[in-house]
Amino acid sequence: MRAVQYLRVGHAPELVEVPVPEPGPGQVLLKVTAAGLCHSDIAVMGWPEEAFPYALPMTLGHEGVGTVAALGAGVTEVTEGEAVAVYGPWGCGRCHPCAEGRENCCPHAAGLGIVPPGLGRPGALAEYLLVDSPRHLVPLHGVDPVQAAPLTDAGLTPYHAIRRSLPKLRPGSTAVVIGVGGLGHLAVQLLRALTPTRVVALDTSEDKLQLAGKVGAHETLLSDGEASARIRQLTGGIGAEVVLDFVGAEATLAIAAASVAVAGDVTVVGLGGGTLPVGFGGGLPFEVSAAFPYWGSRTELMEVLGLARQGLVSSHVETFTLEQAPEAYARLHAGDITGRAVVLP
Ligand code: NAD
Ligand code: ZN
Predict the structure, then answer these.
(1) N or C: which end of the chain has fewer CB within 10 A?
(2) CA distances, 179 to each of 89, 209, 223, 247, 317 (Å)
(3) pLDDT below 70 — which residues of the chain?
(4) How far apart are CA 181 and CA 154, in angstroms?
(5) What secondary structure does DSSP assign to 60-86, as a single string?
């Protein structure tokens, strides 16, 4: 089968031919119908050789949707032909967080060598994807696969990030979304669907700000040196109750710290490598709570798919073939994708 692999550190991913995997006991083979490209893949492909944690070559793609193609021995929970989304942050499946479906918080996964598909083991940018357990599969129940693929990360991650702040997103509050890319454009929609908050979206690109407005942001601002002053102005000097940073660079974290209200939340989702100083003199107002969330839980994925089914969130996508995936990554790297790039193998 064809697969898009990261072969050598520092080199662009390539389309290669690899064997179709066979499901062992307990495993499920999916025929991939859609796979999203995430900026985290760009981050991973930017890591230096000495710090690279995964074995190469590695099939990319951690946002996967497919139909069940074959069942390993003993699998009875899913049936052939069923359309499913892959829940990506796999855990040990036995500990307390895993029992709650919060496998993204499994404390044993790293020690057991359990890594997500596309982030250490073969991912969804291929014709077929091997999934270790039917537990990782969430039925689509009618959601279009192209819509659903981005929801498994670009939807799930902001949903999980926003949920912690729901009590602060009351009427009259303001939420700031920094970076309106794959995750950010879904964050804007999730904030609108779940809360009455006023949404202020920031980006460095006019195209992305245009999309932000189209998907429901009340205000759009260029992410520059003036942004935090504008947010203060918009909020009568108080600042935003919640700031979600989908970039995580030094410059955006400075905006987040200067824009958040007393007792607000700063949630850093982006892997931009900046740091947020916490403590007296660090620049954050008193009572601010900061978080660095990772992906989301399986039940949260069910909920995000539920929102899509109701038409309350939709992924803005540009589609590509597997052959075009390397070019799509290059465009994502250059900031030249609006919404999410989705590959249809
Ligand atoms: P993306 O490339 O689709 O979007 C990034 C957006 O940020 C773009 O619209 C870009 O124009 C904008 N941007 C860049 N610099 C900016 C700045 N200084 N100010 C404002 N906007 C700026 O990326 P994505 O796939 O949406 O991922 C966003 C981030 O989230 C990445 O860092 C990714 O690695 C990370 N991520 C984290 C998790 C997690 O679990 N914590 C999960 C998925 C992705
Ligand atoms: Zn991702």
Answers:
(1) N
(2) 23, 9, 8, 6, 16
(3) none
(4) 9
(5) --SEEEEEEEEE-TT--SS-TT-EEEE
Which mutation among 220, 246, 269, 292 tests ligand 1's pocket best, with the greatest number of atoms within 8 A of CB?
246
Residue 294 in contact with ligand 1 by CB distance below 6 A: yes
Antiparallel, parallel or unpaired: β 63-71 and 58-59: unpaired
Compute the distance from residue 178 Cα to the ligand 1 centre, in Å.
8
Domains (range + CATH), the chain: 2-154+296-343 (3.90.180.10), 165-291 (3.40.50.720)
CB under 8 A, 24+ apart: contacts of 7-15: 7/56, 7/57, 8/56, 9/47, 9/48, 9/49, 9/52, 9/56, 10/49, 12/326, 12/329, 12/330, 13/45, 13/60, 13/325, 13/326, 13/329, 14/326, 15/322, 15/323, 15/325, 15/326
Q: Residue 131, SS3?
A: strand
Q: How far is CA 34 from CA 44, 145, 183, 308, in A?
A: 21, 6, 17, 16
Q: Residue 138, Cα to own-chain centre: how many angstroms?
A: 16
Cβ atoms of residues 164 and 75 within 8 Å: no
Residue in the structure block whose two tokens are 């290059």: 330
pLDDT at 280: 86
Closest C-alpha to ligand 1, atom 31: 270
Contacts of 121 (CB under 8 A, 6+ apart): 58, 115
Sheet of 219-222, strand order? 219-222, 198-203, 174-178, 240-245, 260-268, 289-291
